[in-house]
Amino acid sequence: MSVTATLTPATTAPRRPAATRPLDDVDNRATYISFGLAYVLGHGSAAASGGDTPLLDLPGWLPMTLLGAGLAVGTVQATAAAMHARRAATEPDDVLSGKLLGAAWVTAFAALFLAVTGLTSALDMPDVQSLLWPTGSGFVVGLLYIAEGAARRNLLHYGLGSWLALTSTAALLMGSPGLYWVLTLAGGGAYAVAAVLEHRRLGFSSGRTRLTRG
């Protein structure tokens, strides 16, 4: 037997493919908590201070300020999560999807701002902003979650987006202040549940990745 024939099996032994990070392994907990607090504090204060017999006497600017601050923080967190998914991706198509999803957050809220401002000006009804911003932002966030959930194959994200899109638009049927109670309970509660489930999902995903590498 020749020396070359003896060494061939060792030199041509197949290598174990390097484990890649799954697309759904993106931590959304900071985003869920930020948006959840925006719903509870922003919509909750609007619900408690609205109506003929308000529970709290709050200045009119406070609910929108709390909501806007929470949405701004949540949008930054969501954009960061999309960019993190892009950096973790290895396939060119996944990298492009991450870039587009990250940019979609800025585009969607810019479009929402133009729509609300345009409708308010066209109808000459400044008070309509208090209805369109809460429901419109929930609808936009829901659609973005649906797109991200589909791209990352994340059923929790997709399900949360579907729930937010439906409940945010259905809340318009309730009028004020019932609209804000629906958003507070249905939206804020959904984010709280999603944050808990996200923690469990990430733990399961980490264990699955370790088994794959092992």
Nutshell version of this structure?
With 214 residues, this protein is mostly helical. It is 78% helix and 0% strand.
Largest sheet: none
Poorly predicted regions are 3-21
**Strand tally:** 0
Shape, per Cα inertia axes: globular
SS element count, helices: 7
Q: What is the C-alpha radius of gyration, as a whole number of Å?
A: 23 Å
The ordered H/E elements are HHHHHHH
Q: Which class of secondary structure composition applies to the elements? A: mainly alpha
Written account of the structure:
- The protein has helices spanning about 5-10, 30-50, 60-90, 90-125, 130-150, 155-170, 180-214.
- The protein is globular and about 55 Å long.
- It has about 210 residues and is mostly helical.
- Mean pLDDT is about 80; it is low at about 5-20.
- The longest helix has about 35 residues, at about 180-214.
